[in-house]
Amino acid sequence: MTEVSMSSLAGRLLVATPALADPNFDRAVVLVLDHDDEGSLGVVLNRPTPVGVDTILEGWSALTGEPGVVFQGGPVSLDSALGVAVVPGGGADGGEPPGWRRVRGAIGLVDLEAPPELLASAVGSLRIFAGYAGWGPGQLEGELTDGAWYVVESEPGDVSSPAPERLWREVLRRQRGELAMVATYPDDPSLN
Q: 103: closest CA among 154, 148, 144, 55?
């Protein structure tokens, strides 16, 4: 894991191991948005809330996929919103759409202060998150060393999975070798 922790994890996924005891991150799939010497920030991709996007960010609701709800991005700053969008081709023509900042590939952050119309034609999918997951300097690296997370590549479809409750298993299943077997880990090992 030390090799992984030395480079930026931005745009990659942190998949909670069965050993991770923090209930905020039980079976969580976290998209890392920023990772540097000052710490790390990401959003949990598989925690939908019952709150519709239209109730808090009306103009953006037309751009969100199913389910059209706000996701709990993590336990920090639950009163703030982050938008993550997939732009097909990732602005491959050399220019990024206004109001979108690339994280990695076709995945990027949306400026929710910008008018939604600026991005409407470029966005393939959009998710809105209340709150985020944050780590101080070296904290995430410590959790990686302790075996709390698997680090895997993200795919644009992870951001907009129509069945977020299955994302943990789906991401693990597509990995090679022993990691794919973790997807079969029972929800409650004591019942096994």
A: 154
> Cα–Cα distance between 11 and 34 in angstroms, integer?
8
- From CA 129, how far away is CA 117, in angstroms rounded? 20
Closest CA to 106 of 153, 147, 156, 65: 156
Distance of alpha carbon 76 from alpha carbon 161, whole angstroms: 23
Class of domain 2-191: alpha beta
Nearest to 151, CA basis, from 36, 17, 22: 17
Count the neighbouring beta carbons within 10 Å of the beta carbon of residue 80. 12
Domain extents in the chain: 2-191
Count, residues in the chain: 192
Q: State pTM to two decimals.
A: 0.90
The series of mean pLDDT values per 10 residues for the chain, 192 residues long, is 57 93 92 95 97 92 91 94 88 74 93 92 93 96 94 93 93 89 69 46
According to DSSP, the β-strands at 69-72 and 125-135 are: parallel
Q: Which amino acid is at 122?
A: A
